[in-house]
Amino acid sequence: LDESEENPSWKAIGYCGPDPEFKAQLKNHFLHGTSKGGQEDKEDDDAEEVIGPLYKGLVHLNYPRDITADALRRFGFPVSVIRRKPKVAANLSSPSLAIQCDAVVVGSGSGGGVVAGMLAKAGYKVLVLEKGSYTARNNLSLLEGPSMDQMYLSSGLVATDDMNVFILSGSTVGGGSAINWSACIKTPDHVCKEWCDRHGLELFESELYKEAMDAVCEKMGVQSEIEDEGFNNAILRKGCQEMGYPVSNIPRNSPPNHYCGWCCMGCKDGRKKGTSETWLVDLVKSGNGAILPGCEAIKVLHKKKKGSDRKTACGVAFEFEYKGAKDICVVESKVTIVACGALSTPQLLKRSGLKNKNIGRNLHLHPVTMAWGYFPDAPGASEVWPEAYKKSYEGGIMTAMSPVVAEFEKSGYGAVIQTPALHPGMFSIVMPWVSGPDIKDRMRKYSRTAHIFALARDQGSGTVNSPSRISYQMEDVDEENLKKGLDKVLRILAAAGAEEIGTHHNKGRTLNVKQVSYHEFEKFVKEESSRTLTDVSTPLCSAHQMGSCRMGSNPKESVVNQTGETWEMEDLYVADASVFPTALGVNPMITVQAIAYCTAQSVLQTLKRKRSK
Q: Is 340 helix (H, G, I), strand (E, B) or coil?
């Protein structure tokens, strides 16, 4: 960026940089946002609008220990400050602070946020530990580089061991719900039936689970209306209609007029209702909880249960950075909820001494492959569609979906067709490099290049030992489903009116649809959609990770039971996408929150029993 925070190349590719509405919002607050004295409520409203609604519930640990301890005590947490000899490094036996609470929740995303909010609202003292940082609304950059650094696991640089699948995972207060694309699809009926019948989990066909899905949708204001559809989704919808493929609106946790393409970099105004705008707000407003960003759990603490071989969880040890060095604190709790996500939860459980062989296995990734179509807005054209003002990076990221190859009514294992968010950096990564002039031409067409993807409900699976050690293997049927999806995507783009189409295969072949015969078009589609997807020649992506600590009816095949409690350790619960028994096949936010809602009910029963003793 130059001194005026502009990039000279943006104009050349038709990109505006950060959302212009966001720039205006910040400028307006800077000029007019100072409240007059005595208007406390107005000051609170102003602060919430600019910073976000969680600011009163955050405790940052970059202050001296006594100040941090006092802050926690003001929230009602008993805290002991442990004095160490000078130059003695912090360790588990000599932590800086010992904090007491009813429940400690590790992770603040769609799982942890729900549990934390429900427990705090019920009157229990809840401490939320979040490895990622908290970015206030006015500190969002809405630029890819800084946003990746601030809000994504490993700055967005995560991949499988063989580099075949590029993985995006949120790591910030709010977790994936802070940077996802708003899709709110209930657990499909065929998946609920499969999880109940094949995995012995009656929960998923129970009234409680239906109530949970309804409750989380209501909480997030989920709705399906669209006032003005964005570039990519308008193309997906029109192409499906032209081809006679089924297409439907995607329910979202944002209003009908939410025309924002920057949601993958945080929410500028709180209109997307992730956990930091809903469940975590309940935690803060209850006065019973606090959120500690920048804290990484290193071990679940446990003790031997009297008269039993089984262990009981009794808290968490976590580390954080203070004055350039690692420091350690412990949380002593009655129940412990781990919700670090499918890539990080297994590592924490293993570090905590759990031995269940299923921990870290059965990882599913919902692999995605994409195709693109160029829709020029050349001056003088008789009819420009989509409208010339529409750009590929603007508008609701996901508003339309086709299940044309999803197999919902048959095996339940197919691929859904949706649209991604691709800002220039990500666009340049996934587009093939053929030559310097070629990539310049592709970037020049960026703002009018639509992307549509096929997402497979994968039967293949992998193993995660840590976020930097992920092995994964698709099964042949998964690859075939993606190929079927890619075939449909290319046809959708052409039917919608694309001048040029192509895939992300490294050969970089393109086809000018307007200048070829029907035979040439069919030949191109069949060749491009039949290429292998397992040899790194076509980049695959994953934004959903699940199943690595799966729920089941026995400890031989699963890590947790249907209450979310681990088979191995009492009072230790898991509440994130790692508990999915299989891949889901659609966007997972509602399913994660609904399972967490049910798990929270079980945790509440446990806490009530402990309180009455």
A: coil
| DSSP assignments along 357-391, one per residue | TTTT-SBB---EEEEEEE----TT-S--SS-TT--
Terminal-to-terminal C-alpha distance of the chain:
61
Query: Which residue is listed with tokens 């400028």?
Result: 27
- Cα 402 to its chain centre, rounded Å, is 21
DSSP bridge pairs for 248: 401
Round the CA-based radius of gyration of the chain to a whole number and report it: 25
Q: Does the predicted model carry a pTM greater than 0.85? A: yes
- Asked if 183 and 496 count as a contact pair (C-beta separation under 8 A), the reply is no
β-pairing verdict for 569-570 and 79-81 = unpaired
Phi, psi of 158, rounded to the nearest 5 degrees? -125, 140
Please report the sign of the dihedral spanned by the C-alpha atoms of residue 169, residue 171, residue 174, residue 180.
negative
Separation of alpha carbons 341 and 575, rounded Å? 9
Verify whether residue 544 is a known catalytic residue. Answer: yes
Measured CA distances, 500 to 372, 494, 517, 530 (Å):
8, 8, 14, 19
- Name the active-site residue from 423, 451, 505, 544: 544
The two three-digit tokens of residue 269, written as one number: 């105004």
Question: Between the CA of residue 445 and those of 243, 429, 510, 513, what are the distances in Å?
Answer: 25, 15, 13, 16
Q: Please provide residue 176's backbone torsions phi and psi, each rounded to the nearest 5 degrees.
A: -60, -30
In the chain, how many H helices and how many E strands? 17, 21
Contact 203, 456 (CB under 8 A): no
* Interval 426-449: pLDDT, tens: 999 999 999 999 999 999 999 999
Residue pLDDT, tens place only, 139-190:
999 999 999 999 999 999 999 999 999 999 999 999 999 999 999 999 999 9
